[in-house]
Amino acid sequence: MRRAVPLGLYLLALQVAIVLATTAAAGLLAAKIQHDRIRANYASQMLSVAESVAKLPSVVDAFSSPEPSATIQPLAELIRKSSGATYVVVTDTSGVRYAHPDPARIGELVSTDPSPALAGTVFVGTETGTLGVSLRAKVPVRSASGEIIGMASVGILERELASDLSEDLQQLVGWLGGAAVLGVLAAALVTRTVRRRIFKLEPRDIAHLLETRDAMLHGIREGVVAVDDRERLALVNDEAMRLLDLRVDPTGMPAVEVLEQGGLLDLTRAKEDVSDQLVLAGERVLVANRMTATTQGRRVGVVLTLRDRTELYDALRELDGQRTLTEVLRAQAHEFSNHLHVIGGLLELERREDAVRYIERVGGGGALTSAAVDGAMGDPALAALLLAKSSTAHERGVLVRLDPDFEVAQDAGDDALTVLGNLVDNAVDAVGAGGTVQVLVRSDATGVRIVVSDDGPGVPESDRGRIFELGVTSKPQRNAHGRGIGLALVSRVVGRRRGRVEIGDSSLGGAAFDVWLPSGAAS
Fold first, then answer.
1. DSSP string for 112-153
2. Under CATH, what is the fold of the domain 7-164?
């Protein structure tokens, strides 16, 4: 099996290759531009010199003299040397040279075609002559009357152009070499920085970590929500999306747009970490833990872990009720002993009828009976809930009774059970032993109305505007597991159903909670 190339070496080699390839491409382009510029400059220079020679009055006048070359040759050589051209050649209309760098070739025909210039056209290009390949310019020589009487040709050898380009390229290569060295050093620095940022992990290690992370986060039964230091969601696993009723992955979105104000959002903004705190998310009761996330001693965000504890919340409420019930039973133990002594005495006196009447008098109801909830039989689940709540309240010394107008014509629905259960529990807690709770439920095709009244201390006017907020409670905080959630849950169910909930004064002397849940409004 071939061994994988280390990431650091791979990154360095890749960046060096990119730097060298870019530098080479830039060098070739620069050389091409420089070559074209040098040729263009020399071509312009040759053309300018050729035009100057063709228009020089001494040259034009010499064409009408018996020995034109005697005048033109010295002038051509002087111009050639001063302009840096390789040659300056002047001919007549037949192409016979009047001037040439090699005097021996004067009087001979030129080696290249003079016809374009003799036809009145200016020619600039590369041709091969007696001195070699050269870049040349040919222009016609005209008399004072405008008649073409000859041609002036000025050129420079290509090897001289190459020599000039070579000098420029040497400087260019030096600069490009320096740039390549700097690029390689920068690549090494970037590689080192990247390796340090990824904790010197290799790609296979990173892939393994990501696979393990995804398997762990999306496979665990707890919701995980990570919020970065800019209050944006960095991670939301599958269970968290289920608990928060999210349809699309909110990763990258602001936390304020996803998390609930007063619940999880406030938890992310807390200054200290918390453990096992009950919060509401929609209508779910969650147990949340908040932990500050740090990297290399620097705070980078917070992590929330969430567990669905809707059932646990109900169990905790039952636990509080059982604790209260235990205290009540302890207080009644002596009274029950006295009752037993009376019954025992009556039996010893053989007064069985009096004993039976005494048992009926002290051991009778107080709780609802099945006959008493006939009005609730349109919804058996509601009737069962009322019987269970009444029985529990009776054990705590609280009387639960039905309003005379109680009538359930059809199934009230799960939302009504949630609302009724929480309101009855709160009322029983509020009145304590010896109190009375009255329940009214009316259900028909338009909706369900629930009214729970009690003879407890009531709800102060100052608290009625905030009693439905999460965490707000008027009950003692001792052993108060999940206090401040029941009414908040009621409020959310009512809001989802687009109903209403009102708090007023009960005819019994305490508080009255009046809830309306319209039919067909559940979202």
1. S--HHHHTT--EEEEEEETTEEEEEEEEEEE-TTS-EEEEEE
2. Beta-Lactamase (3.30.450)
Instruction: Give domain limits for the chain.
Output: 7-164, 204-308, 309-364, 365-518
Is the torsion defined by CA of 502, 503, 504, 510 positive or negative? Answer: positive
Q: How far apart are CA 161 and CA 156, in angstroms?
A: 8
Measuring CA to CA, which residue among 27, 10, 105, 98 is closest to residue 60? 98
Q: How far is CA 475 from the centre of its chain?
A: 42
Just give the CATH number of 204-308: 3.30.450.20
Cα distance between residue 458 and residue 187, in whole Å: 75
- Average pLDDT of the residues in 183-207: 83
Residue from 505, 518, 503, 521 nearest 449 by CA: 518
**For residue 91, what are the β-bridge partners?**
97, 151
Residue 365: pLDDT band with limits 50, 70, 90: very low
Q: Could you give the CA distance from residue 341 to residue 280 in angstroms, rounded to a whole number?
A: 51
17-to-12, 124, 184, 191, 197 alpha-carbon distances in Å = 8, 42, 9, 13, 23
Which among 477, 476, 472, 504 has a CA at the least distance from the CA of 489? 472
Q: How many CB atoms are closer than 10 A to CB 99?
A: 28
Comparing 7-164 with 365-518, is the CATH topology the same? no
Give the model confidence (pLDDT) of 88-131 as tens digits. Answer: 999 998 889 999 998 988 988 998 888 888 888 999 998 988 88
What is the structure's pLDDT at 372? 52
Whether residue 47 is predicted with pLDDT greater than 50 in this model: the reply is yes
Separation between Cα atoms, residue 481 and residue 477, nearest integer Å: 8
Question: In one letter, which amino acid is 341?
Answer: H
Q: Of 3.30.390.30, 3.30.565.10, 3.40.190.10, 3.20.20.140, which CATH number belongs to 365-518? A: 3.30.565.10
Let me know the angle formed at the C-alpha of 485 by 479 and 489, rounded to the nearest 5 degrees: 155
Q: Which residue has the higher pLDDT, 64 or 215?
A: 64
Task: Give the Cα separation of 345 and 2 in Å (integer).
Answer: 98
Using a cut of 0.70, tell me whether the model's pTM lies above it: no
Q: Comparing C-alpha atoms, which of 402, 503, 409 is closest to residue 448?
A: 409
Q: What angle do CA 466, 472, 477 make, to 5 degrees?
A: 150
- The contacts of residue 390 (CB under 8 Å, 6+ apart) are 367, 368, 400
Which candidate, 31, 44, 25, places its Cα nearest to that of 166?
A: 31
343-348 contacts: CB < 8 A, separation 24 or more? none
Provide the CA 193 distance to its chain's centre, in angstroms: 24
Rounded to an integer, what distance in angstroms lies between the CA atom of residue 399 and that of residue 391? 9
Please, which residues have CB within 8 angstroms of residue 92's CB and are 6 or more apart in sequence? Answer: 63, 68, 98, 149, 150
Burial of 171 (0-12, 13-18, 19+ CB in 10 A): exposed
Residues 6+ apart with CB under 8 A from 272: none
- b/e map of 176-196 (b: 16 or more CB within 10 Å)? beeebeebbeebeeebeeebe
